[in-house]
Amino acid sequence: MLTTTAQPLRRLFVESDMDAAEVIGVSSGHLAVFCRRCPGKIEPNDDSAAFIQTASGSIVMVVADGVGGSPLGYKASAIAVESIIEGVQDAELFTDLRPAILDGIERANHEILDMGIGAATTLAVVEISDRVARGYQVGDSMALMIGQRGAIRWKSTPHSPVGYAIESGLLDEDDAMHHDERHVVSNLVGSRSMHIEIGPATKLSPRDTVVVGSDGLFDNLHISEVIQRAKSGKPQQRIASLVQLANQRMLEFIDGEPGKPDDLAVLIYTP
């Protein structure tokens, strides 16, 4: 059994429509959170976000993006984040949270399928334990681990034809941002063929940053723009800069720049 070193803490952001980001202190640093529905949208926010800090000091960050156009996308994303947080909370005294995270994803998949209405969601999860981070991925929400000087320590691969084309070198990022199939997703929670991609264990340095976000962020900002705004500064300034540019891109369409109105969920961890 582990010795308690941190105050257990959990927060869920479901159907949120925040005016400003919230910064929460955790035992090893800060978590900045922003979750808001698409500008002008009347329906609930399909993006959900959550995090938990366990009694051992481990942190799990979660972003889910309910599939737009499918029934109750917001409900599907809520089920996904709640299933993972509850699973981790039940297993928080164990040193290895991977089984709890995987079980949470599988449980969410079964629960969404059992709704029987075609609901589905993407999912991006990052677990941080003793400065070692690992990502879990279903769909095209993304996680990004950034070094102090802007080097990419690790980046998840969107589960989409365009995402795989970028990863294989067949398509560069600039062209991908404007590709006709940019928004096609090939793997979802709520699918009988769902699969979970598990990233490598990545040792974080003291000034590294972790960003987890829905496609409301990554379809509106180039990776280089996310890195530039997230790598340094106070947590509130970092997330405010990301949100400001994403909002600008959603509202002002400029030739040659990405621009896609969408729900938005972002979590940033800074040691």
Automatic annotation (TrEMBL):
One of its GO terms (molecular function) is hydrolase activity. Residues 30-271 form the PPM-type phosphatase domain. It holds the Pfam family PP2C_2. InterPro entries: PPM-type-like_dom_sf, PPM-type_phosphatase-like_dom. Keywords: Hydrolase. It comes from the Bacteria. This is PPM-type phosphatase domain-containing protein. The lineage of its organism: Bacteria, Pseudomonadati, Planctomycetota, Planctomycetia, Pirellulales.
